[in-house]
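Hi Q.,

Before the meeting this afternoon, I wanted you to have the magnesium ion prediction in hand. No need to reply - just skim if you have a minute. The sequence and ligand are here:
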Amino acid sequence: MSKLFHSACKAARSLIASSSAPAPRAASSLLADGRNAALATLANLGRNSTLPAAYAHHLHTNASSHGYAWIAAIPAAAYMLQDQDVHAAEMERTFIAIKPDGVQRGLISEIVSRFERKGYKLVAIKLVVPSKQFAEKHYHDLKERPFFSGLCDFLSSGPVLAMVWEGEGVIKYGRKLIGATDPSKSEPGTIRGDLAVVVGRNIIHGSDGPETAKDEIALWFQPKELVSYTSNEEKWIYGVN
Ligand code: DAT
Ligand code: MG
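Predicted structure with the ligand bound:
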């Protein structure tokens, strides 16, 4: 997705640069329009629908009032960058969260990049501080364990980066990338093996099966927060010979 945004923004930037010296404020608001339009287009691709009429109107009005009718072409350009034939079908999704220790230790980019480099696709992301009640819902299957209350206190103690990742086999292999629950037993090369030391501060959560993935995604995200799109890289990540 970031590549698409970059392409759309790059196109917008070069068009702005080549037009007759627009005021910086107008330029940045147009850029924002372009990004939002591309985002709206991408968000709608997976649902086979078009740009919402109200937004299209807003876009058109804004674009023409600034004298930049070309801005309306950006969603279409973003659309054309898609390869509609490649992996259009919905793939497996898992819920991954960087816990407060991982966020506070500045490990967000390290962890996100491991999923990204593997070839999985980010379809939802947000930073939230869950309440203790919410943490108890998330860990409901552990309520009989002696560490349950402390665990829920910890999860609700600060920002958590909640994400949904998509890809073939992502639930099981995501757990492999994460490593064993107790970092002292996690293999080197795994996230917990490389970046954590004790079980009480093991920095990351990942769904442990299709049912929990479904439940956890539904607990942390509203359906409209999940973005369906085709990444241009998919044709190089998937394939049979
Ligand atoms: P995982 O997070 O690998 O799915 P889990 O679901 O069994 O592991 O446990 C959830 C979290 O609870 C885990 O990430 C860290 C904490 N936890 C598990 N076992 C623990 C223990 N023996 N002592 C303290 N915390 C524990
Ligand atoms: Mg678990």
